[in-house]
Amino acid sequence: MPANNNDVNKDIRIFDFSNKKVLTIYAEAENFKKKLSTYDNFKKFFLMPKILWFDNDNMLIIEELIDYMPKIDWKKEDSSYVVNVIINNYLDYFKAVQSKEKFIIKTSESMIENLSTDINFLDFYKRNKFYLNGLSGTSLPYLSLHGDMWFYNILYTKEKNCYFIDWEHSNQYMLFYDFFWFMQYEATYNQDFTYIDNYFTGVYDNFLKEGLEIFNLSFNKQDKLDYFIAFVLNVFSTRIIKSDENTKKSTYNQFSNLLEMIKEKYKNI
Question: Which helix (H) or strand (E) holds 116?
Fold first, then answer.
């Protein structure tokens, strides 16, 4: 069956349930190479299905097949456990990135400047001008991250292991991009605002504080909306900027609606 990697995908996966292996036949060399490189880059910090064998000439990869618990069977405590695993894994990863200086520093203003030639972004800017003009100017680290973090990209087992999969969108993103992507996905697509509530009411403040301090930066509670807007701009400048016009318009509108909800709901926080 076709693998679910990109918008247009011709990769093929063959599952061997008896031997708990899965063979992927890659259609594009770029996807094949990225699979191997992301595995090498992230396997020390995130549990991933093991690559058991690969063939460079024919672009074949065999991985272990994980026996996981379907998301629909998770209990509330399972979701909480997985979120804690995400937080702890990322803090360990941040420490390694900082120690090797594999990151750059950017401001939200620089992304706004880069997006300013996109007419669709200009509509978004007008709609959210008050908040975009009020950005604190906080500089944030940008580093290599997953890029598509949500519950269905984590294989959770009965042994409470969390396997991180589908790294095709891995790229340079702002420090908390993956966590924010997960929060907005649950809110936008599953109508579950638990995690955005937790973010703006302080449940994740220690994670934010620790993450920033690793990069010798200070955490300011009053800047939490700015951090989230930096994430939104990062989405636009990486995943959306090269999309077709309809995708751009729908995405800008989607995030405008989400920001309006956030600003109204948490205006007193």
Answer: none
